[in-house]
Amino acid sequence: MASGVETVLIAMLGGAIRVSTPYLFVALGETITEKSGRINLGLEGNLVLGAMVAYATSFHSGLPWLGVLAAFGSGLVLGLIHGAVCSLPKVNDIAVGIAMMTFGIGIAFFLGKPYIQPQAPRLEGLPLGNWATNPALKQALLINPLFFLGIAIAVVLWWAFANTRPGLILRTTGDSEASARALGVNPIKVRILATVLGGGLAGVGGAFLSLSYPGSWNEGLSSGQGLMAVALVIFARWHPLRCVVAALLFGAAGALGPALQSVGISQGYYFFNAAPYILTLFIMIASARSGATQHQAPGELSIVK
For residue 187, what pLDDT band results from cuts at 50, 70 and 90? Predict the structure, then answer.
């Protein structure tokens, strides 16, 4: 019994780290965007297109890190389109986000059909568990560098929001457009830049999916992780470091089903696989009733007006 519990915990540890990485990049990208006062529901499209572009680039070049860079670029392009369209008069950012999500996924599926079968070079993990004698623990501690890159970006964003002029401009624009204009800031430019950068980070999250875990390209790769990351941002209350914790929580929830199956518990497998979606629903309900969430939300977000 003790051995089974240990196996489940180790499997959840490894799964939490692997599964959380795409959530983390999308959540950090959405945090930047929402800090400027705009919601981007289209990051699911950035995630899927980034996965396809990364895989195709790695396949043709043999360089997976070039694939990551290409995925970042594809996310920037979708972010630029989204930011530019949302800057037009009387345009609803939520509606544009849904349209951009459909557009990104559609382009990825159309261009990605030739890459479903071929095998592309993958990103190698860092073997941090060589000291362990337990093979399962050793495998759990084989961690992709993108996970650490995501944590580093979260720390930089946390510091930048509080201590730099660009961070102040971003927060002011998101809290009060009138105050930003009084400071001589152009809110439209700030929001476009924030949306572009947020889209790029979501693209990197897609690169992790296709080049690390699960490490292939297919049309069901994302399973809605880009949309769930929006709930993750609300749960983290627009704080980059809390995004890391929230992403790990979502990752652990996603790893629960496979972890139980590894010890022979298959009853209720599909229910446990639905844990991230159930968690998302719970967070949205709790957030809607939370006064603290409303208080900490950027004032220019359409969801708080």
Answer: very high
> How crowded is residue 87: how many other Cβ atoms within 10 Å of its Cβ?
16
DSSP 202-264: HHHHHHHHHHTSS-S--TTSSTTHHHHHHHHHHHHTT-HHHHHHHHHHHHHHHHHHHHHHTTT
- How far apart are alpha carbons 85 and 107 in whole angstroms? 18
Residue 127: both structure tokens together: 């073997």
As given in the structure block, the two tokens for residue 234 are 């609300």
Distance (Å) of CA 104 to CA 13, 78, 114, 130: 32, 7, 17, 40
Residue range 2-121+145-297 in CATH 1.10.3470: yes
Q: Which distant-in-sequence residues (6+ apart) come within 8 Å of 169 by Cβ?
A: 180, 183, 185, 190
Q: What single DSSP character describes residue 280?
A: H
More confident residue, 23 or 8: 23
Beta bridge partners of 280: none
Check: CB of residue 39 under 8 Å from CB of residue 303. Answer: yes
d(CA 58, CA 40): 28
Looking at residue 125, what DSSP letter applies?
P
What is the radius of gyration, based on Cα positions, of the chain? 19
Bridge partners (DSSP) listed for residue 126: 143
- Taking alpha carbons only, the member of 278, 257, 279 closest to residue 267 is 257
Averaged pLDDT, 139-149? 90
Q: Residue 174 is which amino acid?
A: G
Angle of helix 145-163 relative to helix 187-211, nearest 10 degrees? Answer: 160
Contact of 294 with 305, CB cutoff 8 Å: no
20 or 257, which is more confident: 20
The tokens for 106 are 């559609």
**Is residue 256 a contact partner of residue 230, using CB atoms and an 8 Å limit?**
no
272-288 CB burial, b ≥16 within 10 A, e <16: bbbbbbebbeebeeebe
Residue position matching structure tokens 């080049």: 211
